[in-house]
What does this fold into?
Amino acid sequence: MVGAVEAAVLTPTQERVMSDLMGSGQARPSFEADLASHLRADLEERLAPVAEQLEDRQLVVHKSALARVHTCEGHQVAEAEAGFSWSAPAAVGVVAHKAIELSVCLARTEGLAALVDLAIERLAADLDRGPGAWLAAASELDRAEVRGGAIDRALKFEDEFPPIKRAWRPRLESTLLTSLCNDRIVVRGKVDLALGQARGTTSGVLIVDFKTGKPRRDHTDDLRFYALLETLRAGVPPFRVASWYLDSGQCHQEDVDVQLLQAAARRLADGARKLHELEVARRPPTLSAGPMCQYCSARQTCPEAAGRSL
Ligand code: SF4
It folds into this structure.
C-alpha cells in the first residue's frame, strides 16, 4: 500500500478521502501556544476534589468507560464487574489495524490477506499484551473468524483509502495518554489512525477512527476525546477528527476548535467524577435504558430494561 500515490489511479472514494478528509492543499488552523496548558489546568481544577478523595489510589479513565458512564451508569458498573475478555469480534479490529500497519511499514508486496496472517502470528507471540494470549490459545474456528473479519476490514480500508505514504507519518493503533493531578488520574485512549504532524502552533494531524455498522452519537464524543488527548500530548490540536464507516465508505468529520476541546474537557472531568463515585465511593448507579442495553452484561436482570423491546 505504500508508495506512489501520484502514480495511483484513485477511485472516487479515495479521491474524497484526499480532498474532503485529508484536505490536501488546504490551509491548517493555528492555535495559541498555551492552549494545552490552559486545558490541562482547567481539567486539574475540575478534578481536584476527585483527586483529593482518591488519596493514594489511581483512577484510570478510558474511552469506553467514559462513553458508558455518560449513557447509563448501570452499564458501566455491569461491565466493570464482568471484566473485559477477548473474543473473535474484539480481536478483529486489532488484527486488521496491525495488518495495515505492516502494509505501511514493510517493504514487501504481499496482499493484505497474507499480512493479516502475519499480524495474527505477531500478535499471538506477545502473550502479555492485547489479544496475544487469547489468539495463541484460540480454536481453529475462532482464528478463522478473526482472519475473515480482519481481511474484510483491511480490504475495505484499502479500497476506500488512498495508498498510505510514509511521508504522511501514519500512526496506527496509537496510544494517547495523559496523567493529571499528580498521577492520581490517568486518561488513556488509542486512535486507529493518525496522519501528519503539527508545525509550530499550526495543526497538521488528522485522526481517524474506523467503525463498522451505523453512526452513533457517542462516536462523536470519542473523536472529541481523542482530539483532547492529542492536544495535551502534542501541545497542538489535530486539525480534524473523523469516524470512517468502513461498511458504507461514509465519513463523519469535525474540524477541531477551542470550543470543541473545552467541551471534551468538561465531559472528561464530569465522567471521571462519576466513575470515581461509582467505583470508589460505591454510589448506586442511575439506569437509563436505550439501544446499548442489547450489549450490556446486566440486560437479563436489569429492572430498567425489563419489558422493553431492545
Ligand atoms: S440493561 Fe440497559 S438500563 Fe440496564 S444497566 Fe444495562 S444499559 Fe443500563
Remarks:
- Strands lie at 59-62, 171-180, 185-196, 205-211, 240-245, 250-255.
- The chain has two domains: 28-83+167-295, 88-165.
- The chain has a mean pLDDT of 92.
